[in-house]
Each structure stands twice: as C-alpha cells, then as structure tokens.
C-alpha cells in the first residue's frame, strides 16, 4: 500500500496562502480545493484509501487532481512510501539485535524511552524484542507506534481503572491489526481512533438497548452489534427485534435476533411502521394464491360429485 508524502507549506493551523488560494480559484475545481485542504490538514501526508473514504473521491480522480495541483505549483513532486507487505508472523529478535538497535538507531531508542515512560516501568528483554519486531518488521513509523501505545494504555484504563498497563504482546496484536487495516500514517491513525471511539459509543448504546450492563461484550456479541450498526436501523427497530426475540425464544438469542434485523433491513425498513407495511404487502401478495387454491378445491369437489352422479 502506498502513502504519498507531499511537499506543502506546513502550519499548525490549516492556512491557505493568498497566492495558493488564487491558484485554486483559477482552476475552478472543487475537488482540487478539497484535496488540497485535506493534504494540508494531514501535514503533507496523503493516505489514498483513507482519503477516498473521507472525501468520497475515487483514486483515479485523486490522481488527476494531484497532477493538476502539481502542475500549478501548489504541491511539490510526490514521493511514494512503500510499506512492506509482510507476514504477521514477526521473527524472534535476539537481545543482541536489541542492543545493536539501541546503539545505532536513535528512533528506536526514542521509542523505547517513550514506552518506558508511558508504562511507568523499564521494559524487559522480551518486551524490547517484541517492540523491535513492531518497529522493524511491521515497518510502522515511530509516531504511529507511540499513538498506538497510548491508545492501548487508554483502553486499559477505561476497562480496569488507573494502575494497570497493557502488555507488549497486546500492543503487538493491535499493531498487526492496524497494519491489516491500512493504518500506516499518523494522520490515518488519528482518524482511525476517532472512528473506533464512535464505534465504541454505538456499541455501548446498543448494549443499553439490549439490557446488557455490568459486563463487557463478548467478541461474538461485538461482531453481531457491529453488523447491526452497519445496517443503520433505528433504536425503535432494535428494541422491537429484541422484544420479539425474547417473547418467541424466552431470552436474547443473538442469531435469532440477527435474522429478524437482516430481514427488516432487506425490505428497506427504517421504522416499525415500515415493518408493518411490509408485512401487510406480503399478506396481500399471499391472498391470491390462497383464493386460487380455494377455487381449485371447489372445482375438484364439483367434478367429483358429477362423476358420482354419472355413475348412479
């Protein structure tokens, strides 16, 4: 996966110089202005898959716009960064490997200091070996790893309260997940964490609708809820499906409720009224078949009586 590092005038705030603004206005291209603002907001980094999702713009259109921006001097020559596609099976690094990196790689040394300060303890030899695998094998930038470590610590604090810190294996597991999800730059990592935070709030809301409290959701429950969130169904329908499930099965049967919600989503239902209208349409569609069957039975009975009369 390629991430483009673009040369643009950087600032803490997103400020478009007057000259650049005039160039954007002259090209009269809304996508060019939108993409330029996006690039400025992400410190010159353009993670194309992330930008596609955020801007609702195709990769082909971005390529065209980038060429236009470059031709007008709004951005410098693009420089592609290739993140190596490697197996999740990180090789085992030795203590000698760790010592060599600590002695010659200032970025890795900074990363070690950051982790020890964040965890509030010295890293063990095994911790250092795992951290080196994340840094060297997975190829994540230092600033992304630092943000990843902080997110792991924050999640542990939310779940168990202050005083507990994640293991380095937990950090490694999340690092692999980020690489698989294409979270490879600081800008994309910040966006990804916001998306996950929003998803977490949605899961909490669903848990409340399902009367779940006092415990964490299981992985299977989280999977079901994540799928229901993507369906975009209203709270009214979630509660109705929950009620129907409990009444018909005696408890919350996840697979049963899932079938209900998927069927409602398939007919485009957004409210309970939509579901009721859909049921009525299905009932009306079934009526002619019932009427035909009844008429056929009457005709068969009439023919039977005629045959009996002829026999007599």
What does this entry look like structurally?
With 312 residues, the protein is mainly alpha-helical. It is built from 14 helices and 3 strands. The chain has helices at residues 18-27, 30-41, 48-55, 59-71, 95-104, 106-119, 125-137, 142-160, 168-180, 186-209, 219-231, 235-249, 254-266, 272-311, and strands spanning 2-5, 45-47, 79-82. The chain has a 3-stranded antiparallel sheet with strand order 2-1-3. The longest helix has 40 residues, at 272-311. The protein is flat, with a radius of gyration of 30 Å. The chain starts with a strand and ends with a helix. The relative contact order is 0.06. Residues 284-292 have low confidence and may be disordered.
Helix content: 55-70%
| Spatial arrangement of strands, main beta sheet | 2-1-3
The string of secondary-structure elements, in order, is EHHEHHEHHHHHHHHHH
Overall geometry comes to flat
Count of DSSP E strands?
3
Distance between the ends: 88 Å
**Biggest β-sheet, characterized?**
3 strands, antiparallel
Q: Beta-strand percentage?
A: under 5%
The mean pLDDT is 81
- The SS-based structural class is mainly alpha
Count of DSSP H/I helices: 14
Low-confidence runs of at least 5 consecutive residues: 284-292
Specify Rg, calculated over alpha carbons.
Answer: 30 Å
